[in-house]
């Protein structure tokens, strides 16, 4: 891309202190600075050649230096210089930014430990199909190549749309009037290969622009395909439990009052994510008159995503203790006077070995259009009018194939299709339990089986298949706003900004399952869990629902050996740390279309809405703001400042389904809808803010910021009903409750919406000192405090929920959203950035950028020992380091990104609190090397996740790792040209 004024730049430091006021405030006339000086300063800023690593770092420093508050930015030439597939991958290099990964790619972000971050597109709200119910986009579907830069605003200002507790991201697209006159073209092609997926993926980015100073147009297109290895070891399903030992003295203390804490499922999964991503951006600018400019933007994204899993899973089928070891670790006291133990290595007596396959698909599409008119006359008044319309939709499906290697006799799962009662998988391993070795002591969680186990395809049977948690979301957004600016000619007050804004956002979500018709005996029903060991009821009329007693089961045997060609594949090893064995598994690719797959096995499937997760929400906001901008001198020191306030009124109308105790289907998760009602509420917020910047010297700036913030609630947390998770009781739980082993009993619940939730609210304080010791050097330290008045968190409450027969027999844990009792996050950031151009050749091409963030937090939750837990997904420490080299045609860069442990989620109650699931600290390395062999043509290679870093998730104790997400190294080769 050609940028204006492509000549080297140096800031005129003698003008800097006074010119800051002029540049920031944007007034046509102001005290103490002559017009020619201001123009000179502006020219100096523009003349930085944003091409190459060193120049882009200079631009980032300049953006920060001349900002009106605490902020950081990344400019265009930074984006794509590392292996930046998504915006989140790019943002992780900014101080205070923490990212979460999806299949190894950056997806969502935190600022200073908080995920409640507003994201704007060219200064306004937009819809992202990855997060229709929230303001914060899931960046997975937004290509970084569409953007010219990103600003991270950390101190609130009245004219910036409220919604971020810890900060606001402003994504900026390119503008035609920034191009040289004439045409500009750019083309980039890449090929990327993963170390584990071993597939080569293409990427193409094309840019075309035209500018004649009166009219300009830009079109940018980015397309890529990716196949990402994303293995998972450990707990495939996150259920856990404390089992009381009543039959053996496993720790040798002479009693039977000790307990064992364990996950219910362990496994190894070959997981692969396939993505096709398309992004388009078109911008038109037209100078209607000398005083009026029109800018139109169209921003389009589309991504088709399939997350496919296949692997082996072992569990005790909700039976008794199943781990035998001489290495039990005491953790804490239990309620029986004994202790709760865990193990790191054990011999498992497994009652069920499953061949598990799953396909999750996500199709996303969004379109955002913006129409902006800017007026700048000769007088003191200027302003803008803007209208925005956005539409987004997302379709999500889940499809499961649950095969058995074991017979089912181990836990009493039987079938009766009218030809006699047999184990559900009559050719499977059994009736004895399967010996499996388990270890979490090495680099990878591992399972070990006897030699030859799993090699015989005739032992495999598809016992259960179902499709649930499918949903379709649609959203629309309309925004109209008018902004005005009035300039003054005074010693301090420079101009006054004011504006009005109105927005409307409509969101609809329909969640559904797939059910097929079944008849057993005289009972007919639509069924979701198509389980060949399940019974619809008392088919033999003896008054008891029992397969062992003669009741018929639904379904049929579906031996893997009888399945169509291409449906079953033999998988060896199952990835790093796998079993070392080969297993037969249903290929999840054939499951991408749930309706077709389910109908191929059990015909007649249809969609059935699940009203507990179906809702409609209408949100309207009205906003007014004012901001006064000041600049001048205090004694011998110059300053800039702004003070203002934003008023927001939010109105919510929520359509919530009313649920009954009956079910519209059998063996399913859908609830009965008995009615619906509209719930309405509104709330208002008055958000004052202030920023003050003092130029202590030409090179040192002190900043202070204050502001109240609030963030719009996740719509998915407002609406929806209670959903109940049920499973077969099995012999142990059946004996405890006095029911049939075949009864589906409630084991957990989810309150899917709380319409009375209050939004996140906080008061933010910022202090920073910034030393710009040369035009490419920066040393800064920032302190911040977020006093959080109210926040939303996941909580677990015990609640009585009905079993499948409608009877409430016990209380089970129910997860829901609640308002936390307040807290704070306080910390600091340190940034050092410098080009070492003072060194002798060839070392004068070196440079570095290092930052560190410390952001501890507390919440009302406590762990099993009563110790306070932090806010979820907050890393107390994070750091980024970049070492770069640029000399002549050669560019090199090595980058590291660190996050300390973060609280992932809360599990079941234990001890004095709950069991926290933590994600262990991570350290990612990326590198880039490029060579410009012609003036406008270069080749490059990049490596992401150089060391193949993985995510370890542990329960309470750092040595008790329960899950691992294993990501691959990805190597890219590319060529870039511009003309």
Automatic annotation (TrEMBL):
Xref: Gene3D superfamilies: TonB-dependent receptor, beta-barrel domain, TonB-dependent receptor, plug domain
Stored NCBIfam families: TonB-Xanth-Caul
TonB-dependent receptor plug domain location, by residue? 65-159
In the bilayer, the protein is annotated as: Multi-pass membrane protein
Q: What is this protein called?
A: TonB-dependent receptor
Higher taxonomy: Bacteria, Pseudomonadati, Pseudomonadota, Gammaproteobacteria, Alteromonadales
Q: Where is the TonB-dependent receptor-like beta-barrel domain?
A: 450-946
- Stored SUPFAM superfamilies: Porins
The domain of life is Bacteria
């Amino acid at each position: 891309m050609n940028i204006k004024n492509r000549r080297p730049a140096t800031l005129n430091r003698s003008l800097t202190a006074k010119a800051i006021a002029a540049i920031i405030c944007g007034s046509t006339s102001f005290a103490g600075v002559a017009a020619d000086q201001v123009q000179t300063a502006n020219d100096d800023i523009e003349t930085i050649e944003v091409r190459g690593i060193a120049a882009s770092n200079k631009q980032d420093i300049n953006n920060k230096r001349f900002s009106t508050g605490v902020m950081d930015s990344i400019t265009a030439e930074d984006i794509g210089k590392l292996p930046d597939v998504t915006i989140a991958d790019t943002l992780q290099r900014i101080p205070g930014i923490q990212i979460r990964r999806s299949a190894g790619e950056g997806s969502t972000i935190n600022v200073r430990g908080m995920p409640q971050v507003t994201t704007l597109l060219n200064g306004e709200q937009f819809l992202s199909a990855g997060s229709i119910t929230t303001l914060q986009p899931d960046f997975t579907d937004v290509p970084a190549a569409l953007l010219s830069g990103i600003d991270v605003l950390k101190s609130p200002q009245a004219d910036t749309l409220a919604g971020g507790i810890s900060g606001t991201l402003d994504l900026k697209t390119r503008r035609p009037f920034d191009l040289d006159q004439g045409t500009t073209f750019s083309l980039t092609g890449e090929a990327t290969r993963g170390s584990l997926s071993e597939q080569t993926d293409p990427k193409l980015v094309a840019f075309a622009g035209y500018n004649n100073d009166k009219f300009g147009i830009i079109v940018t297109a980015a397309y890529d395909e990716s196949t990402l290895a994303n293995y998972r070891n450990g707990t495939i399903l996150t259920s856990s439990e404390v089992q009381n030992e009543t039959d053996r003295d496993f720790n040798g203390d002479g009693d039977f009052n000790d307990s064992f804490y364990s996950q219910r499922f362990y496994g190894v999964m070959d997981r692969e994510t396939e993505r096709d991503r398309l992004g388009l951006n078109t911008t038109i600018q037209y100078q209607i008159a000398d005083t009026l400019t029109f800018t139109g933007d169209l921003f389009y994204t589309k991504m088709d995503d399939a997350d496919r899993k296949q692997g082996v899973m072992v569990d005790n089928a909700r039976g008794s203790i199943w781990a035998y070891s001489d290495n039990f670790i005491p953790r804490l006291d239990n309620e029986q006077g004994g202790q709760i133990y865990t193990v790191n290595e054990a011999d498992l007596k497994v009652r069920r070995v499953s061949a598990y396959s799953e396909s999750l698909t996500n199709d996303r599409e969004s379109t955002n259009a913006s129409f902006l008119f800017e007026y700048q006359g000769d007088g003191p008044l200027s302003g803008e009018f803007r209208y925005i319309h956005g539409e987004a939709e997302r379709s999500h499906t889940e499809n499961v194939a649950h095969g058995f290697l074991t017979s089912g006799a181990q836990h009493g799962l039987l079938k009766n299709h009218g030809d006699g009662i047999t184990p559900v998988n009559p050719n499977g391993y059994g009736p004895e339990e399967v010996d499996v070795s388990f270890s979490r002591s090495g680099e990878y969680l591992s399972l070990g089986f006897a030699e030859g186990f799993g090699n015989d395809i005739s032992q495999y049977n598809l016992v259960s298949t179902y499709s649930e948690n499918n949903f379709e979301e649609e959203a629309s957004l309309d925004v109209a706003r008018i902004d005005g600016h009035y300039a003054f000619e005074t010693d301090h007050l420079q101009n006054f900004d004011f504006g009005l804004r109105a927005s409307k956002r409509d969101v609809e979500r329909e969640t559904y399952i797939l059910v097929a018709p079944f008849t057993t005996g005289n009972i007919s029903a639509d069924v979701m869990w198509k389980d060949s060991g399940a019974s619809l009821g008392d088919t033999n009329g003896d008054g008891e629902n029992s397969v062992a007693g003669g009741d018929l089961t639904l379904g049929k045997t579906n031996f893997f050996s009888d399945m169509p060609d291409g449906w079953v594949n033999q998988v060896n090893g199952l990835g790093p740390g796998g079993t070392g064995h080969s297993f037969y598994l249903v290929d999840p690719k054939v499951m991408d279309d749930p309706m077709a797959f389910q109908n191929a096995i059990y015909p007649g499937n249809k969609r059935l809405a699940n009203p507990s997760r179906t809702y409609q929400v209408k949100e309207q906001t009205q906003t007014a703001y004012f901001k006064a901008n000041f600049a001048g001198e205090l004694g011998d020191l110059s300053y800039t400042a702004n003070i203002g306030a934003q008023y927001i009124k939010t109105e919510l109308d929520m359509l919530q389904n009313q649920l009954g105790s009956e079910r519209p289907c059998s063996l399913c998760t859908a609830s009965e809808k008995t009615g619906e009602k509209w719930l309405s509420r509104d709330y208002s917020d008055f958000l004052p803010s202030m920023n003050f910047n003092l130029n202590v010297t030409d090179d040192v700036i002190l900043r202070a910021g204050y502001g109240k913030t609030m963030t719009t609630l996740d719509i998915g947390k407002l609406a929806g009903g209670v959903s109940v998770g049920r499973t077969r009781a099995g012999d142990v739980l059946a004996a405890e409750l006095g029911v049939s082993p075949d009864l589906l009993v409630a084991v957990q619940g989810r309150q899917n919406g709380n319409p009375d939730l209050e939004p996140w609210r906080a008061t933010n304080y910022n202090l920073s000192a910034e030393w710009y010791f040369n035009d490419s050097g920066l040393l800064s330290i920032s302190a911040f405090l977020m006093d959080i008045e109210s926040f939303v968190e996941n909580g677990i409450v015990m609640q009585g929920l009905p079993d499948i027969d409608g009877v409430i027999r016990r209380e089970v844990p129910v997860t829901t959203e609640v308002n936390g009792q307040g807290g704070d996050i306080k910390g600091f950031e340190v940034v050092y950035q410098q080009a070492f151009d003072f060194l002798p050749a060839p070392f004068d091409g070196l440079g570095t950028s290092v930052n560190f963030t410390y952001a501890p937090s507390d919440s009302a939750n406590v762990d099993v020992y009563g110790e306070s837990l932090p806010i979820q997904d907050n890393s107390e420490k994070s750091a980024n380091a970049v070492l770069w080299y640029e000399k002549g045609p050669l560019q090199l860069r090595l980058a590291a990104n660190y996050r300390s442990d973060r609280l992932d989620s809360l599990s079941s109650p234990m001890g004095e609190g709950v069991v926290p699931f933590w994600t262990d600290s991570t350290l990612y390395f990326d590198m880039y090397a490029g060579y410009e062999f012609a003036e406008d043509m270069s080749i490059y290679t990049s490596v992401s996740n150089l060391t193949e870093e993985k995510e370890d998730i542990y329960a309470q104790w750092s040595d008790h790792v329960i899950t691992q997400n294993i990501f691959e190294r990805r190597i890219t080769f590319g060529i870039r040209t511009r003309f």
